[in-house]
């Protein structure tokens, strides 16, 4: 199907508490033959 599978980002509680942003890169889904997975990114204050 054309459904999305968003991969996960796992973090310990201390790291999760330092997360400041997360986003899905939708550009890859516009390709001629896109993957059913979508890039997921996150930003942390370290």
Can you put this structure into words, describing what you see?
This protein is mostly beta strands and 46 residues long. The protein has one helix and three strands. The longest helix is centred in the N-terminal third of the chain and has 4 residues, at 13-16. The termini are far apart.
Tally of domains: 1
Strand content: 35-45%
Total helices: the number is: 1
Q: N-to-C SSE series?
A: EHEE
Q: The biggest beta sheet, please?
A: 3 strands, mixed
Question: Which term fits the overall shape?
Answer: elongated
Q: Average pLDDT across residues? A: 84
- Kindly state the number of beta strands: 3
Q: Which strand order do you get reading across the main beta sheet?
A: 1-3-2
Low-pLDDT stretches are none
User: First CA to last CA: what distance?
Assistant: 39 Å
The secondary structure category is: mainly beta
Radius of gyration: 13 Å
| Helical content (DSSP H or I, runs of 4+) | under 10%
């Amino acid at each position: 199907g054309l459904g999305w599978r968003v991969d996960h980002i796992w973090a310990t509680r201390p790291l999760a508490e330092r997360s400041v942003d997360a986003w899905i890169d939708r550009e890859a889904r516009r390709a001629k033959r896109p993957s059913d997975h979508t890039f997921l990114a996150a930003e942390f204050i370290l």
